[in-house]
């Protein structure tokens, strides 16, 4: 039986134990299945676990949070129902610290701050609109951001979302700062990237292990793509 060509363990799998599977998701892959019928990350992970542990039946893979399809970076999957239940609770109660990196075309002004919007999603068009005032149908969205510096001809922004709303970072940077993410034509960037990704990367997740209670921190390198190359200079020494 040949190993399924899912991913290279050295690159995409950041961590695995009895309860967790932490993946550096490539851009372009769904985290969970939708009506496109494309194979999602959760199914790829189940196939990987079934092969690795020679399971006769289906492997359990639980999805506690999602990244948009064109976004890369850290995704935490659960290998047990106990871990999934507790991860769901931690994400719901904002007990997970999320750090994203975004490339934008111009330097945000001010270069650091806090953004609050009320977001209303249009499920038909799959687009979210941000309002600066309270909206009767809106969900409150908060994030902190800071410019890390210039990365080539772009600017690298670190974003820490406090809430987890659909398209939150994308629409808040575009609406609140006038700095749409590189490649994100849906929210105002002028041109797509060659691989149709957007320059938004889930750089780091920090949380308490759902079973062992150990403090965990998972950090994903940015994709090996030309538009991200200059951002590697901002890796910690």
UniProtKB/TrEMBL annotation:
The keyword Plastid does not apply. One of its GO terms (molecular function) is pseudouridine synthase activity. GO terms for biological process: pseudouridine synthesis; RNA processing. Keywords: Isomerase. Gene3D superfamilies: Pseudouridine synthase (3.30.2350.10). InterPro entries: PsdUridine_synth_cat_dom_sf (IPR020103), PsdUridine_synth_RsuA/RluA (IPR006145), RluA_PseudoU_synthase (IPR050188). Residues 19-174 form the Pseudouridine synthase RsuA/RluA-like domain. The keyword Isomerase applies. It holds the Pfam family PseudoU_synth_2. Belongs to the pseudouridine synthase RluA family. This is RluA family pseudouridine synthase. The lineage of its organism: Bacteria, Pseudomonadati, Bacteroidota, Cytophagia, Cytophagales.
